[in-house]
Amino acid sequence: MHEFMTPVDQKGDVSERIRTKTDRIFADQLNRIYQRTDQLFANLLVLQWIGAIVLALVVSPRVWSGTVSQPHIHLVATVFLGGCIIILPLYLSFRRPGQAITRHVIAAGQVLLSALIIHITGGRIETHFHVFGSLAFLAFYRDWKVLITASLIVAADHLFRGIYWPQSVYGVQQIEPWRWLEHTAWVAFEDAFLIVAIRQSLREMRSIAAQQADLELAHRQVLDKSHRLQLTKLQLSERLDLALKDLITARDSALESSRLKSEFLANMSHEIRTPMNSIIGMADILYSNSQDKKERERLSIIRDAGQGLLTVIGDILDFSKIEAGKLTIELSEVDILTLVEGVAEILASQARAKGIALLTYIDPRIPRVVYGDPGRLRQILLNLIGNAIKFTEVGHVVVKVQLQERNHNKIVAHFSVEDTGIGLSEGELERLFNPFVQADGTTTRKFSGTGLGLSISKHLVGLMGGTIGATSVKEKGSTFYFTMPFECGSDTADKKIPLPVGLEGMRVLIVDDDPACREILCLYLNEWNVENRSTEYASKAVELLKAAASSGNPFDVAILDLFTPGSDALQLQKEIEKESEIADTNLILVTAFDKQGQGTEALRAGFRAYLRKPIKQEKLLHALAVSARQEQASSLAGQNKDQQPSISVLGTGHGKSECLILVAEDHPSNRLVAQAQLGELGYPTQIVSNGLEVLQAVSKSDFALILMDCMMPEMDGFQATAAIRQTELATGRHLPIVAMTARAMSDDRDKCLAAGMDDYLSKPVDLEQLRSMLEKWLPRHVQTKSNLSPKDHGKGNGTSDSILQVINMERLASEIGEDSAEAIWQTHLTVTRAGLQLISDAIKKMDGETVVRQAHKMKGASGSLFCEEMQAICASLEQLAKTKNWSCIGVVFEELCAAFKRVEDAVDVHVPQNKIED
Fold it and tell me: Bridge-partner residues for 69, per DSSP?
């Protein structure tokens, strides 16, 4: 409503004044219409009377009786009767204009003139239309009651004249008693339309009157306020003159205080940061060396709290630099795609912990390499995305980078962070970028923070030549955005992620209930010229797949979100497999809520690839390439095993690396076994414990081959292999990767090959099998010249049959050597004891996932050391934990503990000089 209606105590009074004003304006307008129409009909009646006389003179001026003629009765009636009809309406229109009696008398006179004209023409049908015209003219009054009066007179006239003088009204001699009803019905038909039009016109008049009343009252309020403001202005002017002098003095004092404060903050931040770095560093060292769970938890708290404090100190230091004018921007190469996706990857765990989806979209048209300040850009994104996650409880956070403008070697990128969080009011938005300001500023606020992040981000964006802003709807979410100009060299402006050959022409179906994720995937696929459709329902997905197959243009790939309305992705996958015409559709599983082993389970279930949100461009491309069986990603899976592959080792090619073979294994004893076996064969080796370390090692050194464990923390072997294969799409080279896993099911080999691995070894790894595998995949120039036959260990060592039932010591010695075995046992028994304790705790908590993971690791380690009894029991325990058969798990765990005790006893007998201490 208008400003004059805003005070609560005046709302009712203002509304009543508007209604009163509206009624008065409406009545005035209606009265003017009545008076104006009265004058119109006064003139019209006179003209019609004169016209009727002329018509009578033309039609029948005189009547003859023999040789004598006299004026026709029609002419006489027109002159005298017509004059009588109009005399009273004329009188009232001048004496009592606008009154109801005048309108009704004029209406009666008008239709009586129509009856007179019908009479003098002998009831000709054409003159009956004069009645309809009269009614239309009477509608000018906008008073439907006038039409009722006129219509009743017309009906009465046709009734009585039809009975006594039918020729005067119908032009026939014979009386037709019901003829008048037909004419009356036509009149009523016209009345209905005219009454509807009159009511509509009155409503419009009242609406216009209400608007006019509103405007007049608002205008009066404005004039009153303007007058009061003029008086207030004069009073304030005098006060402002006095206050201005005080402000000038205060400003000078504030500037000096600000300078001193900035210097103090800079010094304080530096002094605090130095000991904090030492605290965090020592906490990291203690954490990595500690084996006690509670101690590690406490150290983790110290480390996280220290990092949080460093963040606060960094914000304060940046703010002090801004105030002091010392914050500078560096110019270097920026890979926007890698930077944005990297920031999202850092914050993804926070989003998953809150149960919200974090999504990213980077416009493929943006050059891969531009020039800017990557550190400051990362700082801005971390702040905006971190805030979005912090203030969002349900829904998603979407990060988009789009090309806004491009001019030669310069671009402008538009960054936006959209969330479905608590939202902000207009007042909160106006002050949000001010320092030390938060949307929730109370002392008991739910969300922590200094209130400096957005202020610093705004200043950084300004220094880098961009603009920043935000839009928000309370309780619905916010969108923070900023634009950033970049320069890009002519040689890098058009560099993009290389597309796999044959990607064009592929048809992809997207099934995801999150519209933001569907939009992002469609944008990527459209940019890559991949035909696509999307739906949010699983049932609709099956229909689309079947319809496409029936039309002869089936979908090649279906991207399925793990949680879809009506059916999750695993159920949907089973439904697709049941339909023969779509059963061969390649499926990719996507989820925002990743957990350990979920990707492996997806591949085991039949999915071609597994992606977690936020989905990276390169991973999406690689998943499509693998799913479509592109040559770069999966051609090696169909090679003849006896054929010698063509090898091109990843790396710089400047010569053979010192570490020729890379072993990825998370279990300590398994790492020692692999290193010992490769040492026996004469190959130099580098050991890493997870997939992330694999990628780091490959980026720094050249390797001839990787022995990859499949289940590892941080990043498993499947994910690490996918990342390596994606890199190879651009380089055209190929690094052999051999799976080395404790999984021994019949389809495990196929899953490893489908993930991009070249071959498969099942634990325990036999030395001869390892030798054959290396000879198969290593080119001749990297094979060793030493004797590759295993050394003869353990012959005649007197190992008892009872020990051989627990550990095959002779085979172990022949595989890795006696000296190596002694060191390995030291590690294996310690790690196994810890693993048994973890399984025991997990059984008490009924944590099946932990039991599966620890049993699997223990199975692989036992197999590597030829502890066949323990290996078999671990395999049984792993399967029982997957089905959560807790009644049997406890019994099998007791058998496992007893078997481990027998292994300890056997080691004590066989390796007395290295007795394992508890």
Answer: 64
Helix H, strand E, coil C: the string for 825-864 is HHHHHHHHHHHHHHHHHHHHHCCHHHHHHHHHHHHHHHHH
- 360: pLDDT strictly greater than 90: yes
Structure tokens at 636: 């090696």
Residue 694 in contact with residue 757, Cβ under 8 Å?
no
Collapsing DSSP to helix, strand or coil, 560 comes out as: strand
DSSP structural state of residue 582: T
**Section 821-833 average pLDDT:** 76
How many CB atoms lie under 10 A from the CB of residue 82? Answer: 24
Contact 645, 636 (CB under 8 A): yes
Tens digit of each residue's pLDDT (9 = 90 or more) over 128-167:
788 888 888 888 888 888 888 888 888 888 777 777 777 7
Give the tokens for residue 78: 């027109």
Lookup result for tokens 């597309």 = 499
Amino acid in position 640: N
Q: What 3-state class would DSSP assign to 664?
A: strand
- Indicate the pLDDT class of residue 182, thresholds 50, 70 and 90: confident
Report the 3 state secondary structure along 142-176: CCHHHHHHHHHHHHHHHHHHHHHCHHHHHCCCCCC
Lowest mean per-residue pLDDT among 383-397, 651-665, 847-861: 651-665
Strand partners, 611: 590
Which of these, 875, 839, 701, 837, lies nearest to 292 by C-alpha position?
A: 837
Task: State the sign of the Cα–Cα–Cα–Cα dihedral 129, 131, 135, 138.
Answer: positive
CA 380 centroid distance within chain: 20
Q: How many helices (H) and strands (E) does the chain have?
A: 30, 19
Residue with tokens 């996507």: 590
Q: How far is CA 472 from CA 68, 417, 427, 461, 601, in A?
A: 99, 12, 11, 20, 40
Query: In whole angstroms, what is the distance from residue 313 CA to residue 266 CA?
Result: 9
Within 8 A by CB and 6+ apart from 483, the residues are 404, 412, 413, 414, 415, 466, 467, 468
User: Phi then psi for 185, rounded to 5 degrees?
Assistant: -60, -40
For residue 879, what are the contacts with CB-CB under 8 A and spacing of at least 6? Answer: none
Under 8 Å between Cβ of 632 and 500? yes
Cis peptide before 614 (omega within 30 of 0): yes
Rounded to the nearest integer, the mean pLDDT of the chain is 76
Whether 71 and 91 have beta carbons less than 8 Å apart is answered as no
Q: How is 459-500 classified by DSSP, letter by letter?
A: HHHHHTT-EEEEEEETTTEEEEEEEEEEE--TTTTT--PPPP
Predicted structure pTM score: 0.44
- Confidence (pLDDT) at 633: 37
Neighbours of 704 (CB within 10 A): 24
Half-sphere CA count of 153, side-chain side, radius 13 A? 22
Q: Which of 29-38, 336-345, 644-653, 856-865 has the lowest mean pLDDT?
A: 644-653
Per DSSP, what are the bridge partners of residue 900?
none
Measured CA to CA, the distance from residue 494 to residue 368 in angstroms comes to 8
Name which residue leads in pLDDT, 589 or 806: 589
